[in-house]
Amino acid sequence: MASSRGVSRTAEIQTGAGPARVELDQPKTPAFLVVMTHGAGGGVQTPDLLAVRDAAVTLGAAVGRVLQPYRVRGARAPGAPGPQDAAWLEIVAALRQEFPGVPLVQGGRSNGARVACRTAARAAARAVIALAFPLHPPGRPQLSRLSELRGAGTDVLVVNGERDPFGVPEAEDAARVVVLPGETHALSKNPAAVGAAVGLWLAGIFGAD
Asked: Strand runs (DSSP E) across the chain, as ranges?
């Protein structure tokens, strides 16, 4: 289907964990590839993911929003990190074959941000977009996931709400941390602010005007 952002279509990618479903928006000649995914029990139509899509396609990116295999089969919990990460890397590899020779930015919201950080080095991602990164379970700061964020091995943009019960990373924990006033973990009150933060950061990386 043709649109103002080029061609939009749905694709299915087979993984060892089952099929994943990808909503693709692509220009004729993409400048880079952005692959994003959802939170643990969510989908790819959340306001923050759509805001990232809009910001990235404006800069000439191909954007894939991935519904992971466990969600395609109806499960709400992602299961163990190892199999989830393995399936994610299969998805990214398939998309990179479809868009060869362009830089990869991967990311997601909440649990999806954790996946993107954990796999960034193996995926050879140029950068990571971490929306509502869940620094720890609510009320349990001793169970920190900071090592995942700091261990990405590439530049990470964090966009969190100031009222996120999962915690808010500090400025030194990533290449850039944007904290949005009044937002919670959902990042749904002002998605335009999410898109603006992501767009500005991507433009700085890829030298867009």
From this structure: 2-3, 6-15, 18-26, 33-37, 62-67, 104-109, 127-131, 155-161, 176-180
**Domain, as residue range, for 27:** 2-206
Contacts of 177 (CB under 8 A, 6+ apart): 158, 160, 168, 169, 170, 171
* Residue 6 confidence (pLDDT) above 60: yes
CB 157 within 8 A of CB 198: yes
Number of domains in the chain: 1
pLDDT tens digit string along 91-123?
A: 999 999 999 999 999 999 999 999 999 999 999
CATH code for the domain of 143: 3.40.50.1820
